[in-house]
Amino acid sequence: MPRIFVSAFAVPDSAIDGVGHVNNLEYIRWMQEAAIVHSAAQGWSRERYLETGTAWVVRSHTIEYLRPAFAGDALSLLTWVAGFRPRSSPRKYLVWRAGDQRVLAEAETLWVFVDRKSGRARSIPEELRAAFEVVPDGDEVLKAVRRGGPGSLLALQRAG
């Protein structure tokens, strides 16, 4: 059960904007994809949400861009659940570049758990909460990537 999910990829040419670096919208797309894959890895796939008649929707995204990313950069996007409220959950993200071992962006999405038919927020069931280990302190993630790069990323996934 990865408490911190790590997705590694190379920046495609198609992600580059007119200024020559990764377009801001790509970060949001990568964040959403990582959240979906992390959820599936925890036993909550799209099919399971369909079966339960539930879904997650975004209430807000906050991204702080610290450095630009460029075509071909080897990146790691880390994501983790930072907590649970009765009907929502903040999820945090960190984008890290292997080449210079630098953090490029830090972000958070507030996800709201909803009923698919009504679209109304509903309480997050205990079985869903239990599928994710909450990592309330993002500083632990920052310290680990600054300390040791890729080896630290694997250790973060397994640590509990």
Task: Provide a quick synopsis of the model.
With 160 residues, this protein is of the alpha+beta class.
* Percentage of β-strand residues: 25-35%
* Average of pLDDT: 91
- Unreliable segments (pLDDT under 50, ≥5 consecutive)? none
**CATH fold assignment:** Thiol Ester Dehydrase, Chain A
SS class: alpha+beta
Structure, explained:
The chain has a 5-stranded antiparallel β-sheet, sandwiched between helices. The chain is 31% helix and 31% strand. Helix 4 (138-148) runs antiparallel to helix 5. With 160 residues, it is of the alpha+beta class. The protein has one domain: Hotdog Thioesterase (Thiol Ester Dehydrase, Chain A, Roll), CATH 3.10.129. It has helices at 24-41, 46-52, 126-129, 138-148, 150-158, and strands at residues 5-10, 54-65, 74-81, 88-97, 102-115.
Task: Using brief descriptors, characterize the structure shown.
160 residues; alpha+beta; Thiol Ester Dehydrase, Chain A; 5-stranded antiparallel sheet; 5 helices; 31% helix; globular
